[in-house]
Amino acid sequence: MYKWQLDDLYVGYESEEFKSDWAKLKQFEEDFNQLTLEDNLEDIKAAVRFKEDLLITARRIGSFISLTLSTNTTDETSTNYRGQFSKVMSQLTKNQIILDRFLGSITTDITQDSELSDYIFAFNELKEEAKHLLDEDIEAVISKLDNSGASAWSNLHTFLTSTVETDVDGTTYTLSEIRNLAYDADQDVRKKAYEAELAMYDKIKDPVAFSLNNIKQQVLTTSSLRGYESPIDETLQQSRMDRKTLDSLMTAIQKYLPEFRRYLKQKATYLGHKNGLPFYDLFAPMGEASQQFSVEESGEYLVNHFRPFSDKLADLVQEFYDKNYVDFIPRKGKRGGAFCSNLPFIGQSRIVTNFDGSLSSVITMAHELGHAYHGSIIQAHKPLNWSYSMPVAETASTFNETLIMNDLLNNTDDEVEQLALIESLLQDTTQIIVDIYSRYYFETKLIEAKEDKFLFSQQLEELMKEAQLEAYGDGLDPDYLHPYMWVNKGHYYSAGLSFYNFPYAFGGLFARGLYTIYEEQPEGFVERYDELLKLTTVSSVEDTAKAMDVDVSDVAFWEKSLDTFVNYIDQFEEITNKLMTTK
């Protein structure tokens, strides 16, 4: 019950559809040899059709394998297919490099051709990427070695974190289950869960440290070989984002860190702590709005709250609940956290979450449904225009969160309920601002250190504590930090996606800025918003923002977004001070 269905992809590995696509995937290398790559419209169109067909087939198969494994990491058949799939895709790397180099070097005017004109942005990107492509034989070797390199280390991290267990008071918990207890209303439960969580990481920290070191070493090696000054420069190109925009974002965050520390210290005082907030109380619920939801109630709740903004969004939410597009409940072997996988080739998406019935879980669902809504907008593009970059990836998801929270806050006068809602808002915002800053700091320092040495678990723990103190300052109790957050956050464990941290801050604050525009100019906003989301796959970050007349390279935009939270921190202080005097 409450498990998703993947039948719209394939009913199983033995289905005729899967067998047919698997055979087709293995045929692509031979089909590539039939192409002639001359700089003329006919050959260009043939190359594009080949890339489209390969993309659709590979994404369908790869999605089915990865989604199956995400809810059962020990599935032997899927694990075997994952290895075979990686091998086939590695063998096709050389062909794809040749194609990309060809398409990035053409001089034929494609603007007048109806089949190609939609791909102008994609062709320009290929020209830029071609500057960093190695010889196709070298790229092919890198891809093949990745199967036993970074990808294997990443799989080890996923396996260890999804299968480690612990016993607390006679009950066995997975890591996802124990982390959910961080939101429990009982402080003793939260503290026990925190201690148990650290003990779980202690069991697996050494192999995970080897995973992290070797992944980052591969990142440094390949980034340097391809001519990037550093991995962050490579990430910015992948993000379609200027360094000036990132620097403006981080400058604004640094300026407002003291405000979030003020909130954390006030929460600590309210909960009876004198030395800052211990990590185990970071997610402590406050007030009286810690109501519980069944899965069905969460669906009704979200549909009702999204309907005033957009019928299209509300209808999409209803469809996800009606058609079993979500895997809700945590269980052994299921990966932790939550994610949305867009499947534009079938016009759908799928969501994994570890739902526990809390308001926080409902907000998480809203977040992931934002990704799904974004996916429903961009699936109207042609296949090579289906991918958006990391920073804008979090726009619709955090906009959904903002819609829910602001609607809730605007419809209650009860101070105790207001406290619960404001605390939830500030808690989540602290994660995408303060904690993200700590993650960005950690990964920056980690990559700098990896230039010279191997970092064992103890060194990684110290670096993580340093990062947390740099970001949280005196808002956290230095005796109760979380030295193993480098084990917990799966975003560190990808060789092809470094620095997947700042996009959350970008998305959160960008969405907040968009919401301000919505409040000021509601007429026609949804149409402009949908157009902005559609632009995310065919424009730079900066040009996408211009659809709303926003300059994201200007620190003033980010400061304006951040400033909207100061009022909530003031309200939080006012309400908690009043409640403390009546205790």
From TrEMBL:
UniProt cross-references to InterPro entries, sorted A to Z: M3B_PepF_2, OligopepF_N_dom, OligoPept_F_C, Pept_M3A_M3B_dom, Peptidase_M32_Taq
Domain Oligopeptidase F N-terminal: 112-163
Cofactor(s), by name: Zn(2+)
Pfam families: Peptidase_M3, Peptidase_M3_N
Record field: transmembrane: none
Cofactor: binding details: Binds 1 zinc ion.
Gene3D superfamilies in UniProt: Oligoendopeptidase f, C-terminal domain, Oligopeptidase f, N-terminal domain
Listed CDD domains: M3B_PepF
Keywords noted in UniProt: Hydrolase, Metal-binding, Metalloprotease, Protease, Zinc
Domain annotation Peptidase M3A/M3B catalytic: ranges: 181-562
Top-level taxonomic group: Bacteria
Family designation: Belongs to the peptidase M3 family.
Protein name per its UniProtKB record: M3 family oligoendopeptidase
